[in-house]
Write a structure and sequence with these properties.
By secondary structure, this protein is mainly alpha-helical. The protein has 6 helices and 3 strands; from the N terminus they run ααβααββαα.
Length: about 160
């Protein structure tokens, strides 16, 4: 292997290691932000709520595809979230064979509360970073999210840099 190829591989390995390390922090922040829900939702269910928050309504197939799960897994999650009052399910008025799933008001409030806790904790961590490195982090994380097909979060609540 050439030294250039070896250098690229080492850089890629460093990048993957850095993302893995940062992901541990983000998973810890995500888990802690859900702690206040008293076990109402799992991390996977919360991701579904966030996806529904970014779409007005969707069908089960679209929701499963967005989450990268099969329809039966998505259906089980929807059933639990309907039972908890966090999502609604009704027949599509334009296509009676299709069921439409949407976030309920309590579901939207839960997404807001959990996201607000996450924003506050992430803001605390970011304030510990050197100021001159923050813009590069924004660029890199946006590119990472785009590459994964993740919709961008909205709002700036909880930030006071």
């Amino acid at each position: 292997m050439s030294s250039l190829a070896s250098s690229h591989r080492a850089h890629a390995d460093d990048l993957v290691t850095a993302v893995l390390t940062a992901s541990r922090v983000l998973v810890a922040v995500a888990a802690a932000s859900l702690a206040g829900t008293e076990g109402t939702v799992t991390l996977a269910q919360f991701r579904m709520l966030v996806m529904l928050d970014s779409h007005d309504e969707t069908n089960l197939t679209g929701l499963a595809e967005s989450l990268g799960v099969n329809s039966s897994t998505a259906l089980r999650m929807v059933d639990r979230l309907v039972a908890a009052g966090l999502v609604t399910r009704h027949d599509n008025t334009r296509n009676r064979r299709e069921v439409v799933i949407a976030l309920s008001q309590p579901g939207a409030e839960l997404v807001w509360r959990v996201t607000d806790r996450r924003r506050a904790e992430i803001a605390r961590i970011v304030r510990q970073m050197p100021t001159d490195q923050r813009s590069a982090l924004v660029t890199a994380l946006n590119a990472f999210a785009d590459a994964a097909g993740e919709p961008h979060a909205t709002g700036t609540a909880g930030f006071g840099w």
